[in-house]
Design a protein that fits this description.
Number of strands of chain B: 0
Order of helices and strands of chain A: HEEHHHEEEHEHHHHEHEEEEEEEHEH
Helix content of chain B: over 70%
Largest sheet of chain A: 6 strands, mixed
Number of domains of chain B: 3
Number of strands of chain A: 15
Shape of chain B: globular
Largest sheet of chain B: none
Number of helices of chain B: 18
Structural class of chain A: alpha+beta
Number of helices of chain A: 12
Oligomer: heterodimer
Number of domains of chain A: 2
Chain lengths: ~400, ~450
């Protein structure tokens, strides 16, 4: 009896270890993990030097865990045990009450001197604008989901209160500020943020657009809403690895179709989009190819580019000769399409990828001296990333 | 699987490769230490009873302590060779015991090499005295039952380390990293409690894995932990915590100094000496010395108050007192910086800090409550007691007994398999690193 017991134990445990090792050796290495969106480690090259400084052993261990058989499933098992243990957050993402994933921004991670620094940079821009005394400058800092969907957060979960910063901004740049907080609050029951991604939805952006239109003194265009994906699992899903209901992605297309020469009427017809000073243009703000990948949000404006020039092709007396310069983060990617009915040319600058002296760049593109400017970030990206020279 | 004669050769080479994997350079140091103590052992045996033997013993101890001191305490910022604190103590036990005539000098350098370099306990103990394995170095036998028990023990140890210690470690990091104005009484206690669990499950997990691997190969290493958080006095705690270290110090320092045989005064001095050394053994920082002295304080107090008389505190009171002493000791041990230690101690006793409990504290508690319960069950012998209770029932009950014991056997194996699989999942997950270049 005892012997049988021992044999069973040995067979079970030995079977698991040797079985896994065997399957692991027989499985070919993967190059890329769609799940983690990164290139996995491959077998390290051996050299005596690397062996002696210990880096070979380190690289080899990374290789083994990266290439571990059915890696994704093991990771899933671990995440599920965390959930069973009652964890309220995984990898910096809150597991909100109704299954929504909400990115965590801990108050202690945000330093007052950094926010002050960012606001001071914005202040310089405001001063520059007031000196210019032509065109408009609008600043829209969008609160993130944790601030609007507070009641969905786990009990006692902390979040960085963004209202204070927005009030400081209001005080500093009052007439230039478009504060979308109240509007998003009012529409909080609606699908204004993705539930598996840290961006706002196109609907959220639409409410932002209505406020922008009011501030800019233009009549908002009416739109027809198209569902473009129903299987969007965004960045927060990647971080947590939980089985969650995928998001739906929408595009808002102008209801009034444009007629362009030689082709039939279409929404946004005649558009020319130039990425990163390329001579070649695309004829749409939307890139279908991203819908086949995990990074579906890249559908808007071809993911992230340092600089984009959009010739909107709009033919309306109101928009004639009008130019807009957008300084932005990725929250703007689904927002900019709303602007194309109001400007002839839109420049889009992403300061995180294009470290240019901002004012000389603005002056370069402001040939008529009446170019409008829009700063659009979410509050967190603004604090983390807003930087220019 | 390996013929008996070749066993030690395979084990020796395997251990060297294992060590060299982590310490490709310092493996030379370990070989030097092995060779040095091998020769010293032979010389001591050869000149037994003569002055020369004493000289060689002193030289062996000086070389060992010199190595340890140079790498650990010289302040030259050298990386500490893995396991040096353990293997120098093991080899010292050898030369001292040869000098005392308690063991014969080992003539076979391979057998001795196996003793020093043996991979299972090389990294984190237990500290195996030469005499406790001398016999098994030469001949040992691992039955199927031994191997199964060893594998079982290894998996339990792996689970303790990977599933329990690593996961609760995060709570400690969160609490220790809390800004001064945000640290509440509850957070401070949660943080220290988390550390207490982390260090216990980490350390005893390593010991279990070592003991288990040893058992698979036919070695019987000494136990290192015996439910330390059940202790009802500080003296009791140190009979249950890192037993191989305290027994080493007792045998090679405390008793040679006279132990308790030279009156209470001398005994108290001896305790202070031993505990300063125990503290320093854990690290070069003054906080470790403080940690050792803190225990010396309570151990001497217990000697003075309870020493001769067989009085003791009622068990629940004794347990609470011991846990307080131990938890406070972990502040010295884990926080390292003076400011932080003082901040934590003050906050734990309601001085300053962010009140009794704040939002952050409740959030931590809600996040870790289930895990803390699991840890408490694991740290106290509740699971073990329950299994034993069922086993007794099985043997008493003639009707349902056999069926029940089969069920228990199945349950035990399922538990083991689950622990192993979950441990693998945790190890793989530790490298989970989604690259979110599309984050923005």
């Amino acid at each position: 009896m005892k012997k049988i017991n021992a044999v069973i134990t040995l067979l079970l445990l030995g079977g698991i270890l040797f079985g896994l090792a065997f399957v692991d050796i027989c499985t070919p290495d993967r190059l890329f993990s769609e799940y983690e969106n990164r290139i996995l480690a491959s077998k390290p090259d051996f050299s005596l030097e690397k062996l002696f400084d210990g880096s070979y052993a380190e690289a080899y261990e990374t290789y083994v865990t990266d290439q571990f058989v059915e890696r994704d499933k093991w990771i899933f098992v671990k995440t599920m045990t965390d959930v069973l243990l009652g964890k309220k957050e995984i990898n910096g993402v809150y597991l909100a009450k109704d299954g929504t994933l909400i990115e965590k921004h801990a108050p202690e991670d945000i330093k007052a001197e950094v926010t002050a620094q960012r606001l001071a940079l914005l202040q310089r821009l405001v001063e520059w604008q007031e000196e210019r005394n032509a065109g408009t400058l609008h600043i829209m800092l969008v609160p993130t989901a944790d601030n609007i969907w507070k009641d969905k957060l786990p009990d006692y979960a902390s979040y960085y209160e963004q209202q204070k910063l927005l009030e400081e901004l209001q005080e500093m740049a009052g007439s230039h500020v478009i504060d979308v907080t109240d509007s998003l609050q009012a529409h909080r029951e609606e699908y204004i943020y993705y539930k598996t991604d840290h961006h706002w939805t196109t609907r959220g952006a639409y409410y932002g657009y209505l406020l922008w239109a009011e501030a800019a003194g233009v009549t908002p265009v009416s739109y027809s809403v198209q569902t473009i994906a129903t299987d969007f699992l965004g960045t927060l899903h990647s971080k947590t690895n939980l089985t969650v209901k995928p998001d739906t992605m929408e595009a808002y297309l102008p209801a009034v179709l444009r007629k362009t020469q030689g082709s039939s009427a279409s929404a946004g017809g005649g558009m020319q989009v130039y990425y990163d000073f390329s001579e070649e243009s695309r004829d749409s703000l939307y890139e279908e190819k991203y819908l086949e990948t995990k990074n579906k949000y890249g559908y808007f404006l071809d993911d992230n580019h340092p600089f984009i020039r959009i010739e909107t092709g709009i033919q309306s007396p109101d928009a004639e000769g009008k130019k807009l310069f957008v300084i932005k983060d990725s929250y703007a990617n689904c927002f900019i399409p709303f602007l194309t009915e109001h400007y002839e040319t839109i420049y889009v600058l992403d300061l995180r990828y294009y470290r240019a002296p901002l004012f000389s760049l603005l002056e370069e593109y402001d040939t008529e001296g009446d170019m409008d400017i829009l700063v659009l970030y979410n509050v967190i990206h603004f604090i983390e990333e807003f930087q220019y020279y | 699987m390996v013929p008996k004669r070749a066993r030690n050769l395979v084990l020796f080479l395997g251990s060297l490769i294992f060590y060299a994997w982590g310490e490709p350079v310092y493996v030379v140091l370990m070989l030097f230490s092995t060779l040095s103590d091998y020769i010293h052992g032979l010389l001591i045996a050869r000149y037994r009873g003569k002055r020369a033997a004493t000289c060689f013993l002193v030289s062996s101890v000086v070389i060992n302590l010199g190595l340890l001191g140079f790498f650990k305490y010289s302040g030259l910022n050298l990386p500490l060779p893995i396991g040096i604190s353990f293997y120098t103590f093991q080899t010292m036990s050898y030369t001292i015991d040869v000098y005392r005539g308690e063991v014969k000098a080992q003539r076979n350098i391979l057998d001795f090499g196996v003793f020093v370099t043996m991979f299972p306990q090389l990294i984190a103990g237990p500290i195996v005295k030469y005499k406790s394995v001398a016999e098994e170095l030469r001949t040992r036998h691992a039955s199927l039952e031994d191997m199964a028990a060893g594998a079982n023990r290894f998996v339990i140890g792996l689970g303790k380390k990977v599933l329990l210690a690593n996961n609760i470690g995060r709570l400690f990091v969160e609490a220790a990293g809390m800004a001064e104005g945000n640290l509440s009484l509850l957070t401070a206690w949660l943080g220290i409690l988390a550390y207490a669990f982390q260090i216990y499950f980490d350390f005893s997990g390593y010991s279990d894995m070592a003991i288990g691997l040893g058992r698979i190969m036919g070695f019987h290493f000494p136990e290192n932990f015996h439910y330390p958080y059940m202790a009802v006095s500080v003296t009791d705690f140190w009979r249950r915590w890192h037993m191989s270290l305290s027994s080493w110090f007792r045998e090679y320092v405390y008793i040679p100094l006279g132990g308790n045989r030279k009156g209470l005064g001398r005994q108290l001095v001896n305790i202070v000496i031993v505990w300063s050394l125990t503290g320093i053994w854990h690290g070069a920082g003054w906080n470790f010395l403080l940690w050792g002295m803190w225990f010396a304080l309570f151990l001497t107090l217990e000697k003075i108050i309870f020493g001769k008389k067989s009085v003791s505190l009622p068990k629940p009171a004794g347990w609470i007192y011991t846990m307080m002493v131990v938890l406070i000791s972990w502040c010295f041990f884990s926080l390292e910086e003076m400011d932080k230690i003082i901040l934590f101690l003050k906050t734990m006793f309601g001085i300053g800090g962010a009140g009794i409990a704040n939002q952050e504290a409740w959030y931590m508690l809600s996040n870790y409550a289930v895990l803390l319960v699991v840890l408490a069950i694991g740290a106290l012998p509740l699971g073990k007691k329950a299994v034993e209770w069922v086993k007794v029932r099985c043997s008493e009950d003639t009707k349902a007994g056999p069926a029940l014991s089969v069920c228990l056997g199945i349950a035990e194996k399922l538990f083991l398999v689950a622990v192993l699989l979950l441990s693998i999942a945790n190890i793989v997950d530790a490298s989970y690193n989604p690259f979110l270049y599309f984050r923005f």
